[in-house]
Specification:
The complex is a heterodimer of chains A (306) and B (234). Chain A is mainly β and 306 residues long. Helix content of chain A is 12%, strand content 49%. In chain A, the strands form 2 sheets. A 12-stranded mixed beta sheet of chain A has the order 1-4-7-3-9-11-13-15-17-19-24-21, with no helix packed on it. In chain A, strands 5-6-2-8-10-12-14-16-18-23-20-22 form a 12-stranded mixed beta sheet, with no helix packed on it. In chain B, α8 runs parallel beside α10. Classes of the chains: A mainly beta (306), B mainly alpha (234). At the A-B interface, loops of A face α9 and α10 of B.
Chain lengths: 306, 234
Amino acid sequence: MCLRMMGTAPAQPGFREKRILLPLLSAGLLLWSAAPARAAGAEQHIEKLFNVTGQPVVVIHNVANGRIEVKSWKNAQVDIVGTQSSNKIGFDIEQVGDRVDVSANVLDASAQPLELEADLQLTVPEQTELQLKTETGLIYVEQVTGDMKLESYGGDVHLKEVSGYIIVKTTGGSLVCTQCAGKLDFSSIGGNAQILQPQLNSINLMTTTGNILFDGDFIRTGLYSMKSGKGLVEVRFSSTDSFDLKAQTATGIVDNQAAAFLKPDSHGVKHIANKFAHGLFGTVGLGLAKVELSSYSGTIRIMKRD
Amino acid sequence: MQCKEIELVLEQEGLEPLPEEARAHLAECRECRNYVADLTSLVDAAKKLPAEINPPDRIWLSLRAQLEEEGIIRTPADVIASERVPFWRSIGDFFRSRALATAMVGILIVAATVFQVRRDRATLIEPPVQPAKAVPAPPVQKTSAPEAPPMFASAARALDDQEPVATGMILASTSPVDVSLRENLKKVDEFIADCERHLKEHPQDELTREYLSAAYEQKAELLSAMIERGRSIN
């Protein structure tokens, strides 16, 4: 009706008004039509704070699609903020002693994927043990010390300044671990792993089709194993590092870009490569750490950082 | 009760009825609850498999040989020496001896290998046969996937049996998780096929064996995840 009225208005001035009003009216109509849907699936927030005495254990099972973010603070408290996209999912949160369990559950099986989004934001004491499991969302943990097991099907896992025994399992999700310390186990089918500036003394990385990048120092007496079925395994070390290297691939190639730094084994051990594999053995420095790289059909690249 | 004791109880007494102590532990321990849930899903999946499968004789032969070789079973000695034994039975006993059974299996494997090698050579020499136009191409995975190496044969068979059950449970789902699971299953299957193909040419390649073994493990975990997902969405 409004448009028809404008159509009868004088030609020149009305034409300009119409051009301005048309998009506004369209947007208004769109918002008006979407309003009931938004009301039904309105975002909901929940926040709970738990006091803890010792080192807490936080267990999260997020069956919805969403992000889990964990950061630390100095308080002896666990703060949990949950955000859900609809009322078709619900949070169960409970505390038993120093253990806090959080799970996001699907309340309506007919819900669409977009209605099943639930993000969790946690603030925990610095010394906290974590067991997180999600399906497709990102897991992000920052500045937490303690053992952690992080599992995801399709979501990525990003860790920053965490330490402890870290176990990460994904199906297709990738791991980015920046300034991590302690021990790290990673296994995935399609996910990549990037280990940047680590202080890890034990690494066990295994991915079937993903790539692996290790960019950092090898701690003396550390054990490092990195395997990729089809992907690239790249190691960038510094000239002050000290490690024994064993690199093997069945059908791939070993790209040694640090030949000048790699000496034959200095411990008098004669390595015999698997006769079916292409291998490279050598020592950097005194050979204090042990580094094993392998790929079935991918490339193994060894290079020194600038 | 501790987690290890739960494993022991499940191993000895099965899934149900669980003792009171075990139930009390399960109520408190999520890890064990997940473990029991996994077992339950496996048992359920196993129940869906056809009950009457008569494996071929060669399976029994190789199984028996392997069990005897590992000392798990033994061929019973003649109990009544004085009893008159027909000559054909003594021949049978002779053939049932452990060494000979092993040798027989060895001969069978060699024969199968020779047959396989000859067939491969023949395939290389013969020009590729063009498929008839009317016949639709079978699924790539099944035709291109070579047979699993003997040491992995049972694992491969078990996984192959489980695969249709697991994929069937999330077949209709279009959620990103299930799509991701299916994509990754395809990746693992392709990788397994690649390793199997390579091992057929280089059976002693330890590195490839390690990768194949790890890939089977990943596939088992993936199928288990699919079943778990399927149970939650169905």
